From TrEMBL:
GO biological process: porphyrin-containing compound biosynthetic process
Keywords: 4Fe-4S, Chaperone, Cytoplasm, Heme, Iron, Iron-sulfur, Metal-binding, S-adenosyl-L-methionine
Pfam families: Radical_SAM
Domain spans labelled Radical SAM core: 23-270
Species name: Kocuria subflava
GO MF: 4 iron, 4 sulfur cluster binding; coproporphyrinogen oxidase activity; metal ion binding
Main location: cytoplasm
Name of protein: Heme chaperone HemW
Amino acid sequence: MPALRDGEPAPADGLLPPSAVAGAAERQFSLYVHVPFCSVRCGYCDFNTYTALELGQDVSQEAYHRDAEQEIRFADSVLRATGAPRRALSTVFFGGGTPTRLAAADLVSVLTTARETFGITTTAEVTTEANPDSVTLEDLQTLSDGGFTRVSFGMQSAVPHVLETLDRTHDPRNVGPVVQWAKQAGLSVSVDLIYGTPGESVADWEQSLQEAISYEPEHISAYSLIVEDGTKMAAAMRRGEIPMIDPDDQAEKYERADALLGQAGYQWYEISNWSRAAQGRTAAQNRSAHNLAYWHNQDWWGIGPGAHSHVGGVRWWNRKHPVPYTNAVRDGISPAAGRESLDAGTQLFERIMLETRTVDGLPISVLQESERHEVAGLVAEGLIEGRAAIAGQVVLTLKGRLLGDAVVRRLVPQLS
């Protein structure tokens, strides 16, 4: 796993500069809860996750929810001391790792603490990620009864040999039943897929797409496989045991995903995400509200080891390993390892990078005058939509989505 950058020292009291809470009442506030436990580490994964064997007796999964709840209360005290206005949570997201390695009742306990501490809006989206093998109907009903509204299942593929290459341990035959259990429990469902795994054919990928579509989830994410240095898969590639990632293969599979999902009624709203109208809600209403908060640079507090937070242009990240994280939380001090204050240029770059990924696009008016002349060229090259540009927005075409990084480089002064 990559190391966290150093940044500036993070104060033990966690207090934020006054600039961080200026205008906070106009921004949404979200909570991310990182659960760092997995039963097995997948070969491609570089997330901050640990198996029970790696942690030994140093960190207890059974006690983890109490540490997360303590950090939630600490977050509230910091925001109050900094002078932030009270804001009810618009979204809550439990990620990992595998959050459902914790008991459903413990996840509900963390959510209850968040509700009692901050309040939650009546329309809040509350999501947990889950491995298809890690939940029962009873678990999902407990989550729904406790205030969760949505579950995101890590399906990744429907093809056994692809799952084996990814070191995924779940039985693909379990995905359909758990999706139906989630719906029975009253939860909205998202299914996550990965494409471009070495050895995955186009036919394999189409099978995975068609099976995911057949479960009729409200939301489907499709991510290209990225192999980071330091992972088991990266080492296997260096040794020549599995082939390297083929960008042309990934582009073809992305185009197939967009076509098949579109035919099934799913609408793209971010490069890797599609939603559909279902359960009396429009496709737009079934988008991931939590991820949209990230893409639109709202405020969020990240709970747990290695979790990142952002409030008003100040970003910080927690100590990575669960042991020093837990020690700090229990000592009543900030578990942050470092932080940074984003200057205007960095904030502009991040806005361009994130908003161009979405179907709502980026207002051309935010671009510097020297970069606005690039828009006409991008339209002519078929990378952004002409009608949207005339209306004042940068919106990627399908070709533009495949070359999104190149579009950003054209629109950001320091990258031109």
